[in-house]
Amino acid sequence: MGVNRDKVDLWKKDVAKSVDFYNDWFMKFAPKAFRDTRIKTIKQVEEALEWTENLTNIRPETLIGHPSILPMLRMTTCPPIAHDRLVSLSGASSNLVKNMETKNRIPPRMPHSDVIDNLEKIGAIIEKMADPDIFLWKERGDQGTKEEVHRASTIIADRLCGAVAGPIIRNAQEQRQLTAIKTWLEARGYGELMPGEVEDFLFMPPATFSFRVNIPVIQGEGAGKKKVNIPVDVVIMGKNGKKGDYSSLFEAKSAGDFTNTNKRRKEEAVKIQQLRKTYGQKITFDLFLCGYFDSGYLGYEAAEGIDWVWEHRIDDLEKFGL
Question: Full-prediction pTM beyond 0.85?
Answer without folding.
Answer: no
